[in-house]
Specification:
The protein is about 40% helix and about 15% strand. It is built from 13 helices and 13 strands. The longest helix has 23 residues.
């Protein structure tokens, strides 16, 4: 069945969606029978792309809140959720997608289809400093709309605009942890993508607490972990939490670690605890579908990281391993350069967290650092 006919079939019937979901599940279950990992991942990407297209629809949030799913220039996640909250001074916009005239026109078209324009927007808030959430922000600011990020964002603007700054420290760290030359060379090749746009100091620097200059009771919660500048936004009248990438419905967000001094997983789990204690009825995430059982989802995400940490301790066992050796044990399948980088940072974030919780020791060597369990037999 061709993609076009399949899309028509899927949109026209529940059976069509069932067929597509079945193909995805089949691709997952038959991994070992696939000719190669590339074939497996390409198969999954194809079917996930089909599902993303078919499920691309507006959430019905009511309470004066409007939602637009905006396409992204990659397959997973295939779109970012953009929200508009009614306030007496105009609309508060949450996130905006990637930079580029194509995406600006797409956003304007979708806004027009629900009867709003940039002239109705009083403030743009970025949940965090990732390109799929704030890439288009400078273009929107040029329309006279003030832009808001959390107050610590000023410390990371240079790194956002020039990715070589961001990955210079990571390269030094990776080398100490035994990463091969091929990985280090790949870090040297990373360039700032065009769709990230360029940003400057925001007009509004947010702090925790009630959003200033707003008649609506909107609360800013600092939730670092996935990003150092990440915030969640609680709309108290509706009890809807806009979580950005802090809490997602189907996957756990990537936890970065770019240098050995920062325990991002500790920050992330503490942020989960902070959000867990809020009164909320629904989570509206930065990607994917609505989360109708917020507390259950938060518990699931905490359990995921506990299981991963426990697995790392088990993998280390009685050995002394470099960080890179732990990466290869934790992620044994072949990964492309992007996912290998994410796997390295995620692994190191867990090792740092375990070190600070006295579950592993970090042995600093002249050339390569090693990790060992604190409970070696």
């Amino acid at each position: 069945m061709s993609l076009i006919n399949l899309l028509k079939f899927g949109k026209s019937s529940k059976l069509g969606m069932f067929y597509i979901e079945l193909e995805c599940n089949h691709a997952n279950k038959t991994f070992d029978n696939c000719f190669s990992f590339d074939r497996f991942t390409n198969t999954c990407r194809f079917w996930r792309l089909v599902i993303n297209i078919l499920k691309l629809k507006n959430f019905n949030l009511e309470h004066g809140i409007t939602h637009i799913p905006l396409e992204l220039p990659w397959n997973s996640p295939g779109f970012v959720n953009v929200y508009f909250i009614e306030d007496s001074n105009g609309l508060v916009m949450i996130d905006c997608g990637v930079d580029g005239n194509e995406y600006l026109k797409l956003l304007e078209s979708k806004m027009a289809s629900i009867g709003i324009s940039f002239g109705d927007v009083n403030l743009l808030i970025g949940t965090h400093m990732h390109s799929d959430h704030i890439g288009l922000s400078s273009t929107i600011r040029d329309k006279g709309i003030p832009f808001a990020l959390y107050k610590n964002s000023v410390d990371f603007i240079k790194g956002y605009n020039d990715w070589s700054i961001r990955f210079k420290q990571l390269k030094i760290y990776a080398k100490k942890e035994g990463a091969p030359k091929s990985f280090l060379n790949d870090l040297d090749q990373i360039e700032t993508p065009e769709f990230a746009g360029k940003i400057s100091k925001p007009e509004v620097l947010l702090d925790e607490g009630k959003l200033k200059d707003s008649d609506r009771n909107i609360e800013i919660i600092f939730t670092p972990g996935h990003d150092r500048t990440e915030i969640s936004i609680l709309d108290n009248p509706s009890k809807i939490l806009f979580s950005g990438d802090h809490i997602l419905p189907k996957i756990t967000p990537f936890i970065p670690l770019e240098d050995e001094k920062d325990d991002m997983l500790e920050k992330y789990t503490s942020s989960l605890d902070k959000v867990y204690n809020l009164e909320q009825k629904l989570i509206a995430p930065g990607h994917g579908s609505l989360i109708e059982n917020p507390y259950s989802r938060i518990e699931q995400m905490k359990l995921h990281h506990k299981k991963r940490s426990d697995k790392i301790i088990k993998l280390i066992g009685n050995s002394q391993l470099s960080g890179w050796e732990v990466v290869n044990l934790l992620f044994p399948r072949k990964l492309d350069s992007l996912n290998l980088r994410l796997a390295f940072q995620e692994t190191m974030a867990h090792l740092k967290y375990l070190e600070n919780n006295k579950k592993v020791n970090h042995i600093v060597g002249e050339k390569v650092n090693l990790w060992e369990s604190t409970k070696r037999a």
